[in-house]
């Protein structure tokens, strides 16, 4: 074996060992590479899973701004499939990428600067007509120190935007609702907040009296369209039984939402074919009507419609509209409360003005007769009236005194009405006799003005159940008013007739008439068509108010008719007819009612009281002096006492024939005096006739006087003849 061959044989195992070592290392390296690849694959899978699970959108663009990687969240935000993104430029695969946004991408590439929190928006691909918002950040991706692409992180902020928008809208709506207490101004301001942020059109309907529904406000961006829609809403109201619209909401109190306005919906709310045609032309795309309810009471409805914007109402929009509706309802309630308070304040101020005017009238009407009484009295005392004028002076004093008494009686009647203490003494009454008495009372006043009093009285008019005195007061007041406000040589006609189940009394005059604006107030207390300073006729303005109350107490009704000033007036009273079982012999015809209580009797007719001793009990010296003069003129012997104790002493000592006592006495009153007197034996004066003469005129005082033992109750100022006649009657005397 050659030397070379030997060396070669020796080197071969070494080479094999080296090769084996190299192969081993290569295999180990390959295994490590496979493991690394496997790990990278696992990492990529995990990364892809993490990207897909991420709540925000993630995308990767290369240096030419073409999409390389996109997760599902980003694809959804962008409104495109994932695969459709790959290979497209960012401005080709997203409507939100404007030139300004594209410039931010290039800045991130060129400068390697992260651009954070960029707000993007576009029309929503899931909710047509609405806006979608998201927040995006752009991060440079570096490979070996060079910017090789952009990673985009994006999150949907639409819901947050909607919440912020809703809160802002509610805040502005609240401000609009509290800016004014005028209801129309408030609703108009609110509607201008809602349009166009929530809808293209806002109409507010409010419930009125009964089934009335009024259009309170209509707002559209175009005022001409708003007016057109108002006219259409008023001309074609929603049918009460419509399955959609404001009537449905008013009826049920539930929200009516129409996400997509179909022809069937339009047909269900249309009043007729013409209305349906107009609704189609308007082209509404979506609508919602929410109730305006407060304290469980539906007071209106708010309708929102869309058409120009093309949007469709979502449940979020409905919730917002319902919340605004609650705001509106509360604002309406506050506005109504304010208006009611304002009205009450106005009424109170009017009442105060009427009170002041009434007090001025009372002062005037009371002072006017007092002026005549005081003037003539002083002239008589001074001896400045000749014999021929003395009778006229006395007649004037008497007439003005009676006029003042009548004014006081009217005031007392009003007091009874206000206190609910007006009482009637009910019996069958034959109205022709009552009216005849009232006409007789007014004939002198009518003759003085040459006014013709015409009577058209049906003598067969059925009787009524009522208070004869109060019924004559009704007739007298109506005829008195007619005569008072009729010019000289005019005519007053009194008509009594039966109409169905009523007796109708009409008083027609040719006088000045009643202004149309005053006619609704003609029966109100203290109301007069003329002011207190300029009125041409006297009176307190109480007569017709008293008449109305008396008529209503009798179960009747009253109305005043007038064509206006200068055209006369007709007042009609209707009273129910009494039961058919009332016979004519039961009807009160003999006793004439004493109204007006101002018809004096002649002194020549009064009986003499000679031989009678009358005890006058009164602590008022003027009254005592008057009664002494009156009774002594009738030939009675008069004793006087200023208190109950003094009266009892005189009874024991002098045993008077009769007693005239005031109820209001110092210490012990007149009723107590009579109870003590009636407790005495007959021989000690227990049965002495007694008359209560007092200024207390209420029914209660009248009953208390009679219950305490008085035989008769007369009110001040008393007719002198009535008092003398009463004493003579109690003493068993007849006319002399």
Task: Note the topology.
Blueprint: H1 3-53, E1 57-62, E2 67-70, H2 72-78, H3 82-85, H4 99-111, E3 115-123, E4 131-143, E5 146-156, H5 158-178, H6 183-197, E6 201-207, E7 213-220, H7 223-235, H8 246-252, E8 256-258, H9 263-269, H10 273-282, E9 286-294, E10 297-306, H11 315-382, H12 387-419, E11 427-429, H13 431-448, E12 452-457, E13 464-466, H14 468-484, E14 491-499, E15 502-509, H15 543-553, E16 557-561, E17 569-576, E18 613-617, H16 621-633, E19 637-641, H17 644-654, E20 658-661, H18 670-678, E21 690-694, H19 699-708, E22 712-715, H20 720-730
Parallel strand pairs: 12-14, 18-19, 18-20, 20-21, 21-22
Antiparallel strand pairs: 1-2, 1-5, 3-4, 4-5, 6-7, 6-10, 8-9, 9-10, 11-13, 14-15, 15-17, 16-17
Helix pairs in contact: 5-6, 5-11, 6-11, 11-12, 12-15, 13-14, 14-15, 17-18
Question: How would you characterize the overall build of this protein?
Answer:
The protein is α+β, with helices and mostly antiparallel strands. The chain has four domains: 54-156, Beta-Lactamase (2-Layer Sandwich), CATH 3.30.450.20; 162-342, Beta-Lactamase, CATH 3.30.450.40; 422-586, Histidine kinase-like ATPase, C-terminal domain (Heat Shock Protein 90), CATH 3.30.565; 603-730, Rossmann fold. Helices cover 47% and strands 20% of the residues. It contains 20 helices and 22 strands. The strands form five sheets. A five-stranded antiparallel sheet has the order 2-1-5-4-3, with helices on both faces. Strands 7-6-10-9-8 form a five-stranded antiparallel sheet, sandwiched between helices. The chain is elongated, with a radius of gyration of 51 Å. The N and C termini lie far apart (203 Å). The relative contact order is 0.05. The model is unreliable at 530-538, 580-595 and 597-604 (pLDDT under 50).
């Amino acid at each position: 074996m050659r030397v070379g061959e030997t060396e070669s044989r020796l080197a071969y195992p070494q080479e094999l060992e080296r090769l084996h070592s190299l192969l081993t290392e290569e295999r180990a390296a390959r295994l490590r590479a496979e493991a690394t690849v496997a790990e990278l694959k696992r990492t990529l899978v995990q990364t892809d899973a993490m990207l897909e699970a991420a709540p925000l959108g993630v995308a990767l663009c290369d240096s030419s701004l073409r999409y390389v990687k996109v997760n599902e969240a980003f694809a959804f935000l962008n409104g495109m499939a994932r695969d459709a993104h790959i290979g497209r430029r960012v401005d080709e695969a997203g409507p939100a990428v404007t030139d300004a946004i594209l410039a931010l991408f290039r800045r991130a590439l060129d400068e390697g600067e992260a651009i954070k929190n960029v707000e993007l928006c576009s029309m929503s691909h899931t909710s047509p007509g609405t806006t979608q918002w998201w927040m995006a950040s752009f991060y440079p991706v570096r490979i070996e120190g060079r910017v090789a692409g952009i990673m985009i992180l994006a999150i949907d902020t639409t819901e947050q935007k909607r919440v912020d928008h809703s809160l802002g809208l509610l805040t502005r709506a609240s401000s609009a609702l509290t800016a004014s207490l005028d209801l129309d101004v408030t609703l108009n301001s609110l509607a201008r907040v809602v349009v166009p942020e929530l809808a293209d059109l806002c109409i507010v309907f409010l419930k009125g009296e009964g089934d009335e529904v009024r259009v309170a406000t209509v707002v559209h961006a175009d005022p001409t369209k708003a007016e057109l829609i108002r006219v259409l809403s008023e001309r074609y109201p929603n049918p009460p039984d419509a399955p959609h619209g404001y009537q449905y909401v008013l009826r049920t109190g539930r929200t009516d939402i129409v996400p997509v306005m179909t022809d069937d919906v339009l047909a269900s709310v249309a009043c007729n074919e013409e209305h349906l045609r107009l609704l189609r032309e308007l082209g509404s795309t979506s609508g919602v009507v929410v109730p305006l309810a407060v304290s469980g009471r539906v007071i209106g409805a708010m309708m929102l419609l869309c058409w120009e914007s093309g949007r469709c109402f979502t449940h979020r929009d409905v919730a917002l509209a319902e919340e605004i509706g609650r705001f509106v309802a509360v604002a309406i309630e506050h506005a109504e409360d304010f208006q009611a308070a304002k009205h009450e304040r106005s009424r109170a101020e009017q009442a105060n003005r009427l009170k002041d005017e009434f007090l001025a009238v009372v002062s005037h009407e009371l002072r006017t007769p007092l002026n005549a009484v005081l003037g003539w009295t002083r002239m008589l005392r001074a001896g400045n009236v000749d014999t021929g004028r003395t009778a006229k002076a006395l007649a004037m004093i008497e007439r003005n005194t009676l006029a003042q008494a009548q004014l006081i009686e009217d005031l007392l009647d009003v007091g009874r009405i206000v206190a609910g203490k007006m009482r009637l003494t009910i019996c069958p009454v034959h109205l022709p006799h009552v009216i005849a008495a009232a006409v007789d009372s007014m004939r002198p006043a009518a003759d003085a003005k040459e006014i013709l009093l015409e009577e058209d009285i049906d003598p067969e008019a059925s009787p009524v159940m009522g208070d004869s005195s109060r019924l004559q007061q009704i007739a007298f007041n109506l005829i008195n008013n007619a005569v008072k406000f009729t010019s000289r040589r005019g005519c007053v006609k009194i008509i009594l007739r039966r109409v169905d189940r009523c007796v109708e009394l009409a008083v027609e005059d040719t006088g000045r008439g009643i202004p149309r604006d005053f006619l609704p107030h003609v029966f109100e207390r203290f109301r007069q068509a003329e002011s207190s300073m300029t009125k041409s006729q006297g009176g307190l303005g109480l007569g017709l108010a008293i008449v109305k109350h008396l008529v209503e107490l009798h179960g009747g009704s009253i109305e005043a008719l007038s064509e206006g000033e200068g055209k006369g007036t007709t007042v009609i009273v209707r009273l129910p007819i009494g039961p058919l079982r009332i016979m004519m012999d039961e009807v009160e015809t003999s006793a004439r009612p004493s109204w007006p209580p101002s018809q004096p009797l002649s002194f020549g007719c009064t009986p003499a009281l000679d031989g009678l001793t009358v005890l006058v009990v009164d602590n008022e010296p003027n009254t005592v002096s008057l009664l002494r003069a009156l009774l002594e003129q009738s030939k009675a012997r008069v004793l006087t006492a200023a208190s109950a104790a003094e009266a009892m002493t005189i009874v024991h000592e002098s045993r008077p024939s009769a007693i005239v006592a005031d109820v209001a006495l110092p210490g012990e009153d007149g009723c107590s005096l009579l109870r003590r007197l009636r407790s005495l034996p007959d021989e000690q004066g227990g049965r002495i006739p007694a008359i209560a003469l007092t200024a207390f005129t209420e029914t209660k005082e009248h009953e208390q006087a009679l219950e305490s033992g008085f035989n008769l109750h007369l009110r001040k100022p008393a007719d002198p003849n009535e008092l003398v006649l009463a004493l003579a009657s109690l003493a068993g005397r007849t006319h002399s």
